[in-house]
Amino acid sequence: MHETTVRAPAKLILMGEHAVVYQRPALVASLGLWMHATITPRSTSGVTLHITNWNHTETTDWSTVRAYADEVRDRWHSYAAHPSAKTFAQLRSTDPTHLIKVALGEAARAADVEPQPLALRVQSDQPVGAGFGSSAALGVAVARAYLEAHSAPFTHDLLFDIALDIERRQHGTPSGVDPATILRGGLLWAESENDALHWHSVKARAPVLSDIRIFHTGAPNESTGAVVDAVRTRRADDPDAFESIIDRIEDATRALRDLLSAPDVSPSALVDLLQEGEACLEALGVVPPAIRHHIRQIEAHGGAAKISGAGALTDPHAGSLIAYHPNPNTDLWDSLSSFSSFNAPLCVKGAHPLQSAHVHG
After folding, report:
1. With 70 as the cut, is the pLDDT of residue 255 above it?
2. Distance between CA 74 and CA 68 in Å, rounded?
3. Does the chain have fewer CB atoms within 10 Å around its N or its C terminus?
4. Residue 143's domain spans which residues?
C-alpha cells in the first residue's frame, strides 16, 4: 500500500436536469472546483478519517466501516423496493463521515484486495448544496484513492459502478450523470437507453462557454432526492402536461449541444435556449419565487439565467445558477452580488491521481 491523492472536479448541468431521470438526454460539463482525497498508510491498526473543511477527525476500524456501508446498502434496497419519503429519510444520516464510510465500504467490497490500515484526509473547494455534484465528487475521489492506494486493478466502468452505488446512498435513484461527468471530465452528452446511461464527449467549438457566469444562490431547504420525489409526484398528477415539459427540455438540450458544437454562435440563440430551459424548470416547480425574481431582472436586460441542478421547492435558495449576457462586460451581475460567484473553468480534466497511476482497462 502507498500514499496517494486523487482529485475530482465538480460538475455543472448546462441543460437537461430532471429530464435525464426520465430517459432524456443531458448536457453536462466538468467544473474546475476540486475535491481532494488523500490516503496514507497507517503503521497501527484502524482507519482515521479527517474532513479538513469541517475540522472533523475520528478513528474507527475496517469492520465498523464495512458494517456501516452494508447497513446503508440494506436501507437503500428497502427504499428502492418501496420508494417513499419515509424510506428515503432512512437513507440520510447526520454522521459527518456518512458518505466517506459508504465510499470506503463500497470500494472495499468491489476490490479484490484486503483493506489495510489507513488515514484518509478529504478537502474540498466545492460548496455543499450548490448542484455541483459534491457528493459524487466525494464518492469518486475516495473510491479511486482507495483503489489506487491498494494497487487494486480497476476499470473506469467498475469505478463508475462503485460511484453510482455511493450516489444512491445519498440521493436514492440518481441518473448517474454526476459520477459519469466527474470521472470523465470535459463536456458530456449523457442519455439513457434500455435503462442504462450512455455518454460520449462533445467538443465545444463555440467560445461562449467562457462567458457563462456561475453563481451559488445558497443551499436549498430540500435535498436533491426530495426535489426529485416532488417532481415525480407532479408527473403522477398530470402525466400529459409533464411529458410536454420534458419534451421541451429535451429539444432545448439537443439544440444547445448543436449550438456549442458549431464554430460560431448567435448570442441571441444562446439567450433563447437558456430562457427556455429555465421556463421548463419553473413549470416543474423547482425554482422558488425569490430566485425567479432575480432571473426576471436578468431577462429584462437582455440576458438569461437558469437553475443548474435539482433546484428547490421553497425560498430563499436554489443551489447553482448559470447566467449569460451577450455583453460579457455588463454590470448586470451586480444585481447578483448577494450570491457567491465562481471564476472556475468549465470542461476540465476528470478525476485523476496526483500521485501514483495504476489504472487498468
Report:
1. yes
2. 10
3. C
4. 4-203
pTM attached to this predicted model: 0.89
Q: What share of the chain is helix, strand, coil (3-state, %, to 5)?
A: 45, 20, 35
- Decide: 49 and 58 in contact? Cβ < 8 Å: yes
Report CA Rg, the chain: 20
Handedness of CA 230, 231, 233, 238 (dihedral sign): positive
Residue 131: helix, strand or coil by DSSP? coil
pLDDT at residue 92 greater than cutoff 90: no
Q: Do 12 and 31 meet the contact criterion of CB atoms below 8 Å apart?
A: yes
- Compute the average pLDDT of residues 128-140: 91
Q: Is the pLDDT of residue 199 over 90?
A: no
Within-domain flag for 176: yes
Contact in structure between 229 and 88 (CB atoms under 8 Å):
yes
User: How many angstroms separate the CA atoms of 149 and 285, rounded?
Assistant: 44
Number of domains in the chain: 2
Cell, residue 22: 426520465
Is it the case that residue 347 has pLDDT exceeding 60? yes
Residues 213 and 199 in one domain: no
Question: What pLDDT score does 356 carry?
Answer: 53
Residues 6+ apart with CB under 8 A from 139: 99, 102, 103, 162, 163, 166, 167, 179
E strands of 77-220, at which residues?
118-124, 187-193, 196-201, 213-216
**Strands 26-41 and 187-193, bridge-based pairing:** antiparallel
- 28 has pLDDT over 90: yes
C-alpha cell recorded at residue 187: 463536456
- Say yes or no to pLDDT of 360 above 90: no
The tens digit of pLDDT for each residue in 292-316 reads 999 999 999 999 999 999 999 999 9
pLDDT confidence band for 171 (50 / 70 / 90): confident
178, 229: one domain: no
Cell of 3: 500514499
